[in-house]
Design a protein that fits this description.
Number of helices: 4
Number of domains: 2
Structural class: alpha+beta
Mean pLDDT: 96
CATH class of the largest domain: Alpha Beta
Helix content: 25-40%
CATH topology of the largest domain: GMP Synthetase, Chain A, domain 3
CATH superfamily of the largest domain: K homology (KH) domain
Strand order of the largest sheet: 1-2-3
Strand content: 25-35%
Length: 135
């Protein structure tokens, strides 16, 4: 399986702008710029997209890990914060909350650690990954 995305950029790094389009067209010429990446401008940025990818991948992996252990989550919610510092992504921090009937907090944390270590996005990131577990 392959997934694709295309980035188009026009102009200089600071004054220019670009857009991103994904194969699914969920992002369809979605704006990004210096302002949306390094300040608070309108549009997306690569770090936000990495955070979304990590949160989504981790949460789905956790659901599969829990299912493999015989648990069916009522709900899982993950927030991911990616830190860009001096031109490098230095951390991806996951905060996961879950309601999982009949699963102790200790077991939930153990399964979350498994998902953190084994989701494909965690494996591709070359950075420190930290996590808080609530559930």
């Amino acid at each position: 399986m392959k997934r694709t995305a295309t980035a188009v950029w026009n102009g200089t790094g600071k004054e220019g702008n670009g857009n991103l389009t994904t194969q699914s067209t969920t992002l369809n010429k979605t704006q990004y710029s210096y302002l949306s990446r390094f300040e608070n401008g309108v549009g997306t940025n690569p770090e936000e997209l990495i955070a979304a990818a990590h949160a989504g991948c981790f949460t789905m992996k956790l659901c599969f890990v829990l299912g493999g252990a015989g648990f069916t989550p009522a709900s899982l919610e993950t927030t991911c914060a990616v830190t860009l510092d001096n031109g490098a992504i230095t951390n991806s921090h996951l905060v996961v909350k879950g309601t999982v009937p009949n699963c102790s907090s200790e077991d939930f944390k153990k399964h979350a650690e498994d998902a953190k270590a084994n989701c494909p996005i965690s494996k591709v990131l070359n950075t420190n990954i930290t996590m808080e577990v609530q559930g």
